[in-house]
Write a structure and sequence with these properties.
- By secondary structure, this protein is of the alpha/beta class.
- It has one domain: Rossmann fold, CATH 3.40.50.300.
- Strands 2-5-1-6-7 form a five-stranded parallel β-sheet, covered by helices on one side. Strands 3-4 form a two-stranded antiparallel sheet.
- The longest helix has 15 residues.
- The radius of gyration is 17 Å and the shape is globular.
Length: 148
């Protein structure tokens, strides 16, 4: 399984790049995973007053199983490596964020934030504009091929 991170400033285009990559990789019949870092805890996945929202505070794990999807809430902080254990059936996993996580290739969208210079372990490829998306796709496919 090839794991890489997409990092960059807020609103730099990270999700737009990831959307392009995941769509292209899916066309190639690859099983793609996606992990989004939400360091401020603003992501919403449940609505107030729903059954799961009412019961979830009393549990350590809660699952919502629907006909076409399953949502699993683990109500404790997991590190990236622990979360990746849920993705072992994927060919590759795109991680959005986790800037300071070490050991994974990183795609930088835009410029490095000044306060991060020297704190990020590596930057493997940089995206300046949408014209670079195909270059990143080729980089991902080459790394995936080398991973196997």
């Amino acid at each position: 399984m090839f794991v890489f991170q997409v990092i960059g400033k807020h609103n730099s285009g990270k999700t737009t790049l990831i959307e392009f990559l995941t769509e292209e990789l899916k066309k190639r019949n690859l099983r793609v995973g996606y992990i989004k870092h939400d360091p401020k805890g603003k992501g919403l996945t449940d609505k107030e007053g729903s059954d799961t929202a009412r019961v979830k505070p009393n549990t350590v794990k809660t699952a919502l199983v629907s006909p076409n999807t399953t949502t699993l809430w683990i109500l404790e902080r997991l590190n990236l490596q622990e979360v990746l254990n849920f993705f072992t059936d994927c060919d590759l996993v795109v991680v959005e964020g986790f800037k300071f996580e070490k050991g994974f290739p990183k795609v930088l969208v835009g410029e490095v934030e000044e306060d991060l210079v020297g704190k990020i372990d590596r930057i493997d490829i940089t995206v300046g504009s949408k014209e670079d998306y195909k270059k990143v796709l080729e980089w991902v496919l080459n790394n995936l091929k080398n991973e196997k």
